[in-house]
Amino acid sequence: MPSALPEDPAPRTGRTQVVCEPDPQSGVQPIVPASVDTAVAQPGSRSTGSTPAEVERIPAGGVAVIVTMLVAAFVVILNETILNVALPRMMVDLGVNATTVQWLSTGFLLTMAVVIPITGFVLQRFSTRAVFGTAMGLFSAGTLLAALAPGFGVLLVARVIQAGGTAMMMPLLMTTILTLVPLSRRGAVMGNLSIVISVAPALGPTVSGLILQAFSWRFVFVFVLPIALAALAYGVWKLTNVNEGGDQRFDIVSVILSVPGFGGLVYGLSHIGEGQGGSVDPVAIAVIVGAVVVLAVFVARQLQLQRRDRPFLDLRTFRFPMFSISVAIMCIAMAVLLGSAIILPIYLQTVLGLPAIVTGLVVLPGGLLMGVMGPIVGRLFDRLGPQPLTVTGSALLVVVLWLFSRMDTTTPVWAVVVLYLVLTLGLALLFTPCFTGGLNPLPPHLYSHGSAILSTLQQVAGAAGTAVLVSIMSAAAVTTTTAAGTRVDLVPGMHVAFFVAAIGALGAVVLSLFTRREASAAGGHGGH
User: Fold this and answer.
1) What is the 3-state secondary structure (H, E, C) of 488-518?
2) Maximum Cα–Cα distance for the chain, whole Å?
3) Residue 242, Cα to own-chain centre: how many angstroms?
4) Model pTM score
């Protein structure tokens, strides 16, 4: 299988990696990561008491593990957006209205929001092979069920099953990279994550549109299924255990609290602007308030469990300043990305009068650019550290969002394409440094929790960014009533929404000034 990962140089002295003998029952050959005590602090980082040498190679079998997971993650995230173009045809074939069919997307997002926080526990409790097999098994089963679904109810269940598998993949991939890849090369490898999180969603509508030109909506799932099954089969056959699992106790109270907490928050934010006439929906506000209260209880529960050293989702990750700063920047970036991804198509179709297929082609180059830039930015991170990249990226966000706030009915399409390309360049300069720089300082026992927290807050921030910007656009739009009827001018609302987004992006600029390179903690709990 070809790999975009850096090839291993010749082994050097220092950090060692132990490849154990295969287990006599399972035949699995576990990869045992080197002790963190041998990690090397990068220039300008805090001293961790490490030895001065560090091996620069990924262990035997490690590249195959990471590439397998990258392919699997690409497929499952492609599936997140591949259905959007098919929804109108599904409404006709399944005999449902727009509000009902939208639950195929809403149900998917809610399941993701509920399952991702649980992955912190799952990744520590079970082996890599077991988690990967479960994730891709669920996704494949859901995809098959969706392709054969006789009606809407079964299709919705299939989407929920798909989402359960999808939710596990990104935390699993991030945790595996942190475990296998030496600190000095993590940026280059983490850069490949940008291909997954940017190119896959950008390609989804395009791939779906091409399929629907000749086939029914069921073939959207038929197209994905063989790729998912191939990744599952290869993983079950070849995947080695990076983590053998542990004896962490399952806390049912945390699960009960996380479902209405995270699920309710994402649901409320996603529906906040759906009141009468585009106003704020009081039901959504009530759901958000209730979710926040439940999450406060959830946090209190985790703090209680931390005192016993067995948290379900370990919040001690926030004791590491670089993790907290990186999470905050990532939240701003995701809010900007997903908010813009909603408003721009509305502007292009409603204001400039472009057809849907042209709208997709306008934003497609931006997603592809993010994927191309990911590995490049990763290598720059390894050489320069995070600050030059994050400051530049966040500054680009502010400039482009301000220019977006000046667009009107006379703006040429090519200018929108160029501005969106610059916006995605800025996001590419933020994503890899924040992923890598935020997770690097964590000790190994917090890798899975940090990955789960980062992925969870990305979901919440994306929903919040979309809700806030669309609500602002709707509230600031100008409605005029004449004898010919009522006309809504969205341009003033779009101006205000993008201007507010630019102000928010200034927060990312300020936070970026405090980013720095830090080596992995030698162990123990942060802040102790």
Assistant:
1) EECHHHHHHHHHHHHHHHHHHHHHHCCCCCC
2) 82
3) 22
4) 0.73
What angle do helix axes 491-512 and 321-346 make, rounded to 10 degrees?
Answer: 160
End-to-end CA distance of the chain: 44
pLDDT digits (tens, 9 = 90+) for 186-205: 777 777 777 777 777 777 77
Q: Are 172 and 450 spatial neighbours (Cβ–Cβ below 8 Å)?
A: no
Q: What is the DSSP letter of 309?
A: T
- Listed residue (303, 323, 347) closest to 435, CA to CA: 323
**pLDDT tens string 311-335:** 888 888 898 999 999 999 988 888 8
Residue indicated by tokens 């029952």? 25
- 104 pLDDT higher than 80: yes
Cβ contact 163:63 at 8 Å = no
Return the residue matching tokens 């299939």: 158
Backbone angles phi, psi at 19, to 5 degrees: -105, 110
**Helical H runs in 83-127?**
87-94, 98-101, 103-115, 119-125
- In Å, what is the CA distance from 200 to each residue of 76, 77, 195, 207, 443? 9, 6, 7, 10, 30
Q: Tell me which of 6 and 243 has the higher pLDDT.
A: 243
Cα torsion at 34, 35, 38, 41 (round to 10°)? 100
Give Cα separations from 75 to 121, 161, 451 (angstroms): 24, 15, 19
